[in-house]
Amino acid sequence: MTAVSARRRHPALLVVEHHYRRHKRAWSSIVATGIIGPVLTFIALGFGLGSQIDDTSSLGTEDYLTFVGPGVMAGTAIVQGGMDSLWRTYGMLKWDGTYKTVAFTPSSPAEIAGGHLIFIGLRVAVSSTLYLLVLLLAIGWTGPLALLSPFVAGLTASAMAALIAGYTSRAESEAGFSVLARLVVTPLFVFSGTFVSVETLPVLLGWFIKLTPGYHGIELTRGLVNDSLSLGGGLGHLVVLLAWVGVGAVATSAGFRKTLST
pTM for this one? Predict the structure, then answer.
């Protein structure tokens, strides 16, 4: 790449390229780690627990396999996006000085934050694409819309990452990260519809969950994989996801600006 071509590219994309080059040697292991856990979870629940479930009328799918498979894909995106925005993000801002160094380039804090969130989404989308291949081998071809599901998983990860990075970038220490992981990230993974329908939850909890990006990511992913989504429903979930990404990106950009300017 020439210096001229680099200048023509958006600074956020240069941040994405930085992350790619930084992780290039370990890319295969990073992606493998991102799919081994989800695949094993899918097999254990879909074929193990799923074989004991006869009535799936409350799930809206033909069987538990087609319910939990897409749920695990998007649920994993919730965890990966959330966890990547805790210690890893804090480290690049405070510990190893990665983003402090990048801030000396023409890239603004907002562009650095944007590249950070885009890379998280892309990494999850790649892992989700490989997971989708395994899922379709198990449940069969469901239609071309299923091919869009990895992008939704990536968007879900970016939404979660943006929300949590907004806090991480302002944190004075990592002391509260374990609590945030246990009380926010993990519950959203469990209760957003990954394993059971949100309609089975207590009413108030169900209403709260339906406001979160994880719920809309899971519902959109499941609808695309199973080809069971109406146009209006799909667009509704997408709009909410994009809104969360936008709100989170603004908060993250402000946090990056505060940290990198001191």
Answer: 0.90
